TrEMBL record:
Coiled-coil features, chain-numbered ranges: none
UniProt protein name: GDP-mannose 4,6-dehydratase
Protein's UniProt keywords contain Transmembrane: no
Entry-linked PANTHER family: DTDP-D-GLUCOSE 4,6-DEHYDRATASE-RELATED (PTHR43000)
Gene3D superfamilies membership: NAD(P)-binding Rossmann-like Domain, UDP-galactose 4-epimerase, domain 1
Entry EC number(s): 4.2.1.47
Stretches assigned to the NAD-dependent epimerase/dehydratase domain: 3-234
Enzyme class: lyase
GO MF terms, alphabetically ordered: GDP-mannose 4,6-dehydratase activity
Keywords from the named record: Lyase
UniProt family annotation: Belongs to the NAD(P)-dependent epimerase/dehydratase family.
Length: 728
């Protein structure tokens, strides 16, 4: 399932993201990074840098079918909401409406909205229930109140499941220094920097503090529940004073001191939310006490919150900003001083006659800085010309009447105004082009990201449909290998079918004798991790015996290392087991219900193919065997040899061939004598040279001596049969 978390890089959002990812969700984040930090999230996710009110968010919804949206993105600073209500409204209301609209358009199953206890205002009916009248005291509280109403109406009009949670004072690791509940992080910050704590009032004001993990637990349970709408207080239903908070912090680290100030105007004295409703509906209860929560938060701050380094970095940035701000003034003054020096130089008369340094100075400043600096340069030049004339003995009162002086000053002012106009026009045009370019670049980057995501999804889908081992074509091609009427061929191909479809590395098939006592290996593919012998008794499989006789799949749930992970019996029409499919070396993470269901399908196909082959062989017995003997006719025997050769090349399955030397004995009686000695998985056949030959399955060359001795005891003389293709 997919979940979108807006504000996912923030304090609460990062914890929500980690919880959903831990529970197996595919997580997506929309965050404008105004207060969130990438380092807050250390789990797998996809990120989009947008404002929640941005229409570009539609690209995110359009290309991802979200099941759940958790809307946490908001402007949370009450002071900011008072200073700039428009910004607060833009994010908290327009952003919410955009998310609701897109959730409806793209069929989101459930929308969770983060509201606030700020909507209650200064209501003293402690603890506050959801039925209390909302009387917010700030634009922030108003926006949350309006947001709840939007969610309620969206549920009624568009049938979108919307759940609103009124958070009490949330605290925990990664919390910033602003917003609701920030008193904990502010105190933590002061303690970390070994500063005194500032306390407004007597410290007996109380708050309903809730630890962030308890809050995320409630949000996740709501997402998984059948709740379709409603407003719920999310709190601990308890009150803790600031003095108690300071006491807990002091037990963790000695506080340097407390600076006491008067109560802040508008501060609420006591606050606590009744959580009875959510506990009843979700079966949720807060698990972390205030003492444990503060300790967890302090431990995190001690390790991760490097305030001094942040302050140093901020100072560096401020210093750089100041340098950039004053650099044009410094350059202007420096160039003006250079003009003065050159004008008073010994050869200044030559320079003055050949070029106007003052005019050049205005040109340079106007072309490089324009605007304000050009006006300053023009003013300084006019002052310099005036001073020069006064030093030459001219009267201040007569200078304006001097046409030469007036022309010079007018020329400087005209040039300054023209340059300033040209520069400002060029600058505005450049800024406009930059904005257009930036907008197009952002649009391109967004489309490029969307294209890349679609390309990845397309490639995965194409791989599954066309090229993957799970595609219909590949599965059909694999299963087609079972379409044979030769049981030995079906057994041989069955292990490859299981290996390719189930992606396992240790597969073996054993036959069972008529007395249901002995198991003999027919074919194996893989590394035989549990060292199953070639021949064993049914007792070796212990508790799997019941499943085998009932024709049911056995799963080694006790993880017994001596028996296979899965054993699937192949029973005939009368319920008698004739063979066992054994699978081992399955990766632990693949032991899922899907794997078991897939194995049921594959093994049932193999069962059907094997039983069909047995029935065919039984029906064709007269044509396959020499009359009244267990000897395969030449064409059928050659087919078995070919299958055994393929098994040896593909699965490294060993077999040996023995040629009977008793040509003086009756073939009929000799074959029956041999048949009683060999196993069910072995074969007797007639070659094109009319030699009587035995094929002994899963027997190595080192076993031949023992087998020859056993045959000799029965009066059968035999020897190894060599052909040019034999590699045993």
């Amino acid at each position: 399932m997919k979940v979108l978390v807006t504000g996912g890089y923030g304090f609460i959002g990062s914890h929500v993201v980690e919880r959903f990812e831990k529970e197996g969700y595919e997580v997506f984040i929309i965050d404008n990074m105004s207060s969130g930090k990438v380092k807050n999230v250390n789990c797998k996710h996809k990120f989009y840098k947008f404002d929640v009110e941005d229409k570009k968010c539609e690209y995110v919804f359009k290309n991802n079918n979200f099941d759940i949206v958790v809307h946490l993105a908001a402007q949370i600073n009450v002071t900011t909401s008072l200073e700039d209500p428009f910004l607060d409204t833009k994010t908290n209301i327009l952003g919410l409406v955009n998310m609701l609209e897109l959730s409806t358009k793209y069929k989101v199953n459930k929308f969770i909205f983060a509201s606030s206890a700020a909507i209650y205002g200064n209501n003293q009916n402690i603890p506050l229930t959801e039925e209390e009248i909302a009387e917010p005291l700030s634009p922030y509280g108003i926006s949350k109140c309006v947001g709840e109403e939007y969610c309620k109406k969206w549920n009624q009009i568009y049938d979108l499941d919307t759940i609103c949670f009124r958070f009490s004072n949330v605290y925990g690791p990664r919390q910033g220094l602003i917003g609701e509940g920030g008193v904990v992080s502010i105190f933590m910050d002061n303690i970390t920097k070994n500063k005194e704590i500032t306390l407004n009032g007597d410290g007996e004001q109380t708050r309903d503090f809730i630890y962030v993990s308890d809050l995320t637990d409630a949000l996740f349970k709501a997402a998984e529940s059948n709740i379709s709408s409603g407003v719920y207080n999310l709190s601990t239903n308890s009150r803790s004073s600031l003095n108690n908070l300071i006491r807990i912090l002091n037990s963790l680290k000695k506080i340097k001191g407390i600076i006491r100030k008067e109560d802040r105007k508008g501060d609420i004295k006591h606050s606590s939310l009744d959580n009875t409703k959510i506990k009843k509906v979700l079966g949720w209860i807060p698990m972390v006490s205030i003492e444990q929560g503060i300790k967890n938060t302090f431990d995190w701050y001690s390790i991760n919150y490097k305030t001094e380094e942040n302050n140093i970095e901020k100072k560096k940035l401020k210093h750089n900003d100041k340098v950039k701000r004053y650099l044009p003034y410094i350059e202007n003054v420096a160039l003006f001083i250079l003009v003065i020096v050159l004008s008073t130089f010994k050869n200044g008369e030559y320079l003055e006659n050949t070029m106007d340094l003052k005019l050049a100075y205005i040109f340079i400043i106007g072309l490089t800085h324009g605007g304000k600096q050009t006006i300053i340069a023009t003013t300084l030049t006019s002052i310099l010309v005036t001073v020069e004339n006064i030093l030459k003995g001219r009267s201040v009162f007569t200078l304006p009447l001097d046409t030469n002086f007036a022309f010079k000053i007018g020329m400087y002012i005209l040039v300054g105004v023209i340059l300033s106009y040209i520069f400002e026009r060029y600058l505005k045009k450049e800024q406009s082009q930059n904005k257009i370019t930036e907008s197009l670049k952002n649009e391109y980057d967004l489309l490029r990201n969307v294209y890349n995501e679609i390309l990845v999804e397309k490639s995965v889908l194409q791989e599954q449909v066309v090229n993957s081992e799970n595609s219909f074509g590949k599965i059909y091609g694999i299963i087609k290998k079972l379409d044979s009427l030769e049981s030995q061929y079906v057994y041989s191909e069955a292990v490859e079918v299981i290996e390719k479809i189930l992606k396992v590395k240790d597969v073996s098939i054993y036959s069972m004798d008529k007395n249901n006592k002995y198991l003999r290996l027919i074919v194996r593919k893989g590394k035989n991790d549990i060292n199953m012998p070639r021949t064993t008794t049914l007792d070796y499989l212990k508790e799997a015996k019941t499943n085998i006789f009932n024709g049911e799949l056995f799963i080694n749930k006790n993880l017994d290392m001596d028996i296979p992970m899965f054993i699937c019996p192949i029973n005939d029409d009368y319920g008698n087991p004739i063979a066992l499919i054994m699978i081992n070396s399955v990766k632990f993470e693949r032991l899922t219900l899907h794997f078991v269901n897939l194995m049921h399908v594959v093994t049932n196909l193999i069962k059907t193919a094997i039983l069909k082959a047995y029935k065919y062989e039984e029906a064709m017995r007269d044509k396959r065997y020499i009359e009244n003997t267990p000897i395969l006719k030449r064409e059928f025997f050659e087919n078995i040899k070919s299958i055994k050769k393929d098994e040896m090349e593909k699965n490294k399955s060993e077999f040996i061939m023995l040629k009977v030397k008793n040509k003086d004995k009756d073939v009929n009686s000799l074959s029956h004598l041999i048949y009683k000695t060999i196993r069910k998985s072995d074969y007797i056949g007639m070659t094109s040279q009319y030699d009587l030959v035995l094929i002994l399955s899963n027997a190595s060359k080192s076993d031949s001596h023992l087998i020859l001795e056993r045959l000799e005891e029965k009066g059968v003389q035999a020897e190894e049969y060599n052909e040019e293709y034999m590699y045993v």
